[in-house]
Amino acid sequence: MRQLTVSIERFPIAGTFTIARGSRTEAVVVTATISENGAVGRGECVPYPRYGETVEGVAAAIEALRLQIEAGLTREGLQSAMPAGAARNAVDCALWDLDAKRSGIRAHVTAGIDRWPPATTAYTISLAAPEVMAEAAAKAADRPILKVKFGGEGGDLERIAAVRRAAPDATLIADANEGWTEHNLAEHFAACAEAGYVLVEQPLPAANDGFLATLARPVAICADESVHDRASLKRLVGLYDAVNIKLDKTGGLTEALELAEAAQAQGFSLMIGCMVGTSLAMAPAMVLAPRARFVDLDGPLLLAKDREPALTYDGSIVYPPQPALWG
């Protein structure tokens, strides 16, 4: 017999995590735990206000599905039982973990991944004053890939240059989190190109990103807030060069695998990203890492304390999870 447990957990962030939409000092996550005949599967999600989610609402949505889950709901059935989003992600990943624990077959094998090597993750530089961001970049300059947050009130041109000066050898990704406008987009693109950034992520609000079709792009552009699941993909052709797949947007690993295949078939490069969560949230996303051009699974590196057991990070190298964690 199955049993579902839903819990809300809080993990302090080391310092403050700031993007164009605001700042946070803790990661608040919802964890679904499904036990069956001695096997236990877990999945973690991070509710995101940008998508109309609250911690309480996500927990309630999972609770509302309790009878179906405890009656034996499958991953396939879950896709129609819940919409894409954080709540479905927690349940979907818990079911993947449960299946792995019951069968003894690792999740990446079930997903069709023969080899599961370590990956190099980007490391995030939070939005702040240019000199503060430069200092943070200098401290992280030995990391090979830095993802730099922009979109503040003015100063982004200076921030773009300051981070490059502080980390001259790093691969840089600019992430505006919808914070730029049609009026300043061209100059920000030009500044990123001049400073050698390899990618610009979600420069415009998702509702206004059709404007991207009107501009030459000196730097590749990646969709984040504009892409959720396969249903959102078709509109992005011609606007973006890459898509950022996050399990909290796709509603779990099941849809994320399908989205990755569809996106690559339509010529998009892949980034595998995350919200700020623990190793339990990163572990299922690691299944997609072998297919990705960029991996951005640094959530636990931003926390003051991760859960145990945790993923192993060696600098920016992140290793696949041990079964005790997930999968």
TrEMBL record:
* Residues annotated as the enzyme's active site: 149 (proton acceptor), 246 (proton acceptor)
Give residues annotated as binding Mg(2+): 175, 201, 224
Q: Tell me the domain of life.
A: Bacteria
Give all residue intervals belonging to the Mandelate racemase/muconate lactonizing enzyme C-terminal domain.
130-222
Q: How is the cofactor bound?
A: Binds 1 Mg(2+) ion per subunit.
Keywords for the protein's UniProt record, in alphabetical order: Isomerase, Magnesium, Metal-binding
Q: Which InterPro entries match?
A: Dipeptide_epimerase, Enolase-like_C_sf, Enolase-like_N, Enolase_C-like, Mandelate_racemase_C, Mandelate_racemase_N_dom
Any single GO molecular-function term of the entry would be: racemase and epimerase activity, acting on amino acids and derivatives
User: SUPFAM superfamilies of this UniProt entry?
Assistant: Enolase C-terminal domain-like, Enolase N-terminal domain-like
EC annotation from Swiss-Prot or TrEMBL: 5.1.1.-
Q: Can you cite a GO biological process for this protein?
A: peptide metabolic process
Which top EC class is named for this enzyme in its record? isomerase
Q: Which cofactor does it need?
A: Mg(2+)
Q: Which residues cross the membrane?
A: none
The similarity comment for this entry is: Belongs to the mandelate racemase/muconate lactonizing enzyme family.
Q: What is this protein called?
A: Dipeptide epimerase
In which organism is this protein found? Microvirga brassicacearum
